[in-house]
Amino acid sequence: LFFKLPSDCFKYVSWCDIEEHGVQGNLLHCPRVREGPSEEELFFRGEEHTLKKIKQATDTEKWQKKLQENWEDCAELNLSFQDLGDLYQVEKFKRILQRLIRVEKLWLVDNSLTDLSAIRLPRCRELNVNKNHFTSFKQLPRIPQIQHLSLAENNIMTLSGISDFRHTPLESLILKRNPCEFQERYRQLVFSSLPNLKMLDGIPKLPEDCSPPNIRFFFKMCAIL
Questions:
Q1: Hey, which of 91, 132, 161, 207 would disulfide with 138, CB 3.0 to 4.6 Å?
Q2: What's the predicted TM-score (pTM) here?
Q3: Tell me, what DSSP letter sits at residue 7?
Q4: 200 in Cβ contact with 210 (< 8 Å)
Q5: 26 and 75 in contact (C-beta within 8 Å)?
Q6: Euclidean distance between CA atoms 190 and 205, whole angstroms
Q7: For domain 22-35+54-209, which CATH number applies: 3.80.10.10, 3.40.228.10, 3.40.190.10, 3.40.50.2000?
Q8: Which residues contact residue 44 at a Cβ distance below 8 angstroms, ignoring those fewer than 6 apart?
Q9: Dihedral (C-alpha) 106, 30, 24, 147: value to the nearest 10 degrees?
Q10: Does the keyword Ribonucleoprotein apply (predicted)?
């Protein structure tokens, strides 16, 4: 297209940059929080016509924007599919996560995340980080109140570090489609590390899951996933 569409000026604009509205962050369930491409990137894409003229923000306007982004008040938030293509977008994303001090349910699906170990989510009870690039439990955020954790489709190789969740109220864990799922006596090892766990990969704790992991025994029962 060689002509400017009416909506082009909003293509890379976050909701808090749109004028004359009072919508705050805790009112949005699936906000887009990543910043748009830089001016240089837009030029190389041939999309310089979409660039919004940015004026120098006053201190009052900066404060009003901060009030709109009241992430501290969010109890339930979906920040999935943010398309974090640049480092500066990832850094802004992490700064928002650091402000989620009251969030209880958080979805971060498919964001190409690799390390959130510096993030603390003190009230989070349910966390979904499916389809990211985590390779270890050590790279997860600190979640002392976690009850339901979903890590499907990451790249977690071993169960090393899983015992860090031993003293949390974790009841349900999903590790489907991670390499560690193919480890010998996988279910026994997980349940022995997490005594409070009630469900693994959608399957409740079975009697044979309670057997000591160092005992080799073949059961006639199989679980069909």
A1: 161
A2: 0.78
A3: T
A4: no
A5: yes
A6: 11
A7: 3.80.10.10
A8: none
A9: -10
A10: no
